[in-house]
Design the sequence.
């Protein structure tokens, strides 16, 4: 793994202080009702992974959701591979990855780049900094803006209409990983249904099971987030803005709640 040298101790100490200041500032801003800085398109959905990294003198991981969601379904990672829906809740370790769990299920040199690789002359190169990149500034293999240049655009989040991108064939999502996933027959997808809006003069929500099933399957949402019985789960927009129910994904990785018309779409 990429470790800090003695000459970088001061930088590392500064980095720790900056993280603490930023974290504290965001917590204070949130408690005081101050709006956070809206993330840039290439930052939206990124996850800062630092459960163990800095404790072990290693740069933290910056996980790019935009790149992974362009290749794999949410269900594959959050059901088959077992990643929790809450950032930092899984507790991935280097040993887990070496044994082929979590990130290591793909980053093994076959499905995706592994921790080490050899060129045609047998020279070995470590790929630690490609993931443990916070504060290191490596050049990513795929640049967000070049990668998504021809993708259909959205208004918020990272500015991409991912559903339309799949419909147009710009992306093809993998939903099965050999040795991890279980082959199963696809379930029948329930019809779209309306959800009453709690606010007056607000259009009703048209919830599409088909749209969500493409990405999530059924297991991501049911039964942990939503009861399987229609109407049994009661929630408010305040809950959603707090990161619960629909807000588990929308506002973090899926398009944010600012895009009201994407959900409240039934004509009045």
Sequence:
């Amino acid at each position: 793994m990429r470790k800090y040298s003695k000459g970088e101790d001061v930088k590392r100490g500064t980095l720790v202080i900056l993280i603490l200041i930023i974290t504290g500032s965001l917590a204070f801003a949130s408690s005081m009702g101050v709006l956070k800085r809206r993330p840039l398109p290439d930052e939206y959905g990124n996850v800062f992974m630092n459960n163990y990294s800095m404790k072990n003198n290693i740069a933290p991981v910056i996980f790019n959701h935009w790149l992974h969601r362009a290749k794999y379904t949410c269900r594959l990672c959050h059901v088959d591979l077992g990643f929790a829906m809450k950032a930092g809740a899984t507790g991935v370790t280097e040993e887990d990855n070496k044994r082929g769990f979590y990130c290591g299920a793909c980053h093994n040199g076959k499905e995706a780049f592994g921790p080490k690789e050899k060129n045609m002359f047998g020279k070995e190169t470590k790929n630690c900094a490609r993931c443990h990149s916070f504060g290191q500034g490596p050049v990513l293999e795929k640049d967000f803006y070049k990668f998504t240049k021809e993708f259909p655009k959205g208004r918020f989040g990272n500015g991409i209409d991912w559903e339309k991108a799949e419909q147009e064939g710009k992306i093809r999502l993998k939903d099965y990983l050999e040795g991890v996933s279980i082959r199963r027959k696809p379930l029948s997808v329930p019809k779209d249904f309306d959800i009453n809006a709690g606010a007056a003069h607000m259009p009703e929500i048209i919830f599409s099971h088909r749209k969500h099933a493409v990405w999530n399957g059924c297991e991501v949402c049911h039964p942990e987030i939503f009861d399987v019985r229609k109407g049994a789960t009661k929630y408010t927009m305040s809950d959603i803005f707090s990161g619960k129910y629909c807000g588990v994904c929308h506002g973090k990785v899926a398009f944010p709640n600012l895009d009201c018309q994407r959900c409240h779409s039934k004509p009045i």
About this structure: The CA atoms of residues 6 and 12 lie 10 Å apart. The radius of gyration is 20 Å. The chain has eight helices and six strands.
